[in-house]
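Before the break, one more example. Copy the sequence into your notebook; we will annotate it together after we see the structure.
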Amino acid sequence: MKIVGTFLERLYDAIRREPFRRKIVIAPSYIEGQSWLMRICRELGPVMNVEVQTVQSFVRSQVQFSLYQQGLTLIGEQRSFWIIHHVMEQMASKPDSYIAVDQVKPGIAMHVHQAIMDLRRAGVSAGELRDDHFMSQQKGSYVRKVLSAYERFLNQRSWIDFSGLLSHIPTQLPENVELILPDPMPLSPVSARMLERLSNGRMTRIIAVSSFTDVQSTMPFGKVQFYHATGRLAEVREALRRIIQGRMPLDEVEMIVPDEEYALVISTMCASFGIPCSYADGLPVITSGMGRAAHFLLNWLESGYQVRQLVLMLQQQLITFSDRDQGITNADCIRALEKSGIGWGKERYIKLLGSGHVRFQGDADERPEERERTEQQQRDDDIKKHLTNLLGELFPDEAALSSPKGIWGWLVNILDRFGVCGTEEDAIVLQEMKGIAKELQECPVPDSMPFQQMFLYARDMLQELRVGVQRLPKPGFLYISSLANGGSAGENIRFFSGWMNSRGPGISGKIPCFSMKSADGSMPGFKQPCRDKEIGNAFVMVGLG
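Here is what the structure looks like once it is written out:
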């Protein structure tokens, strides 16, 4: 059966079929759905009475009032993780547990949490699991008990996760609503049943083209150019050189990178060249001042309060100890800390800053106490006193050093008190960290945990934060995306960066151009790829590091 038109043309026809009926396009992500509508409006014509939703956002919008009436609270991934962690700790206290107490660490806890969430998304309850469903019956028994305890915990707290919403789905949508989604679309069994129950037969599936990462991709790889460069910097520099030399419009170029390290390199290079960029996945939180301050504070705490870490934060203006009323600046505090001889250790801060004087270069050890104080000495004492008063707020108490919840709350308090909020991104990072701290208060986080393990959890939560996220391309900006969300924005020119020869076997199934040869037939075994109209003008450059 021949499929007429491209995916966007078929989607455009489905939206226009009944213009006064409300259409909800269910997309894998907001960025992909919005890019479909943007390209339709740009290439085919305007559309009306249509909105983009993901399965999660659409289902939540349909059940939120019902959950409120029943007194249920919808929880996210973070809270479900700590519930699983709590259950694992309780089970580990038993002598015959499959996972012992010393094995309940971040890596293992994350894998168990992922397994339980996969079972929930598949619609499998603890009562339906049997030990012989697993290759190891001991492991099967453990997973079944964890899942059963997780379900009981949710019921006791009147909490519900996304997979549990299936039983709260209303029978049908209003008469004037129609669902439109691509076919095929990756859906978990629970999500598929949710959409079927909601649609009540009013669901239109549009045959979609293969993703650009699929082996059957229709991307025109006859227009692929390969170039080699040594290292990330050289590779990104060569890509930018080609963009500038070719006078390519920035908003028609997309760079698809394999990891955040390449995104950081692109950010640095483009900033030096004055090239504006937008990032689909954003950048790591350490690219913001507030994120770097949080990173430095954890390092300072983990290093035993080394004064050098504190001085670096002050020098980079990540935190401030200045006091305008007393005329004390950060430079004064830096000078006092550098000359104090503290080194490291909480006790040394209190002892040396609380001593009779701060030793500065040029002071004589045998200086008599009766020596007349100079104006500079008086100011030094004022600075010392100011720093001493800050110690009570700066050092965490014992409760903060015993659990991830405590250390995260300490981070938020210090950044709120001493952090330098110089940009909008800094304010957003601080607000997100406060949201996580509030969420942790509701989670069953252990009150006591080994020091290094606590730091692993805190660093993992910090690394998950992103800054500068721009899900859709911006006019006049170079668009940076990843394999997970790249290739859907409709740019005419795409650069693949970071595909080193050593990675070839691992990505040949992900990037079709690595399993093909040249389109001119100079190499045997190559099949000329078909050229879909909607991406027929795309031009692809692949960098091999």
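Confidence is low (pLDDT under 50) at residues 356-362, 501-538. The first strand starts at residue 22 and ends at 26. Try to locate both features in your own notes.
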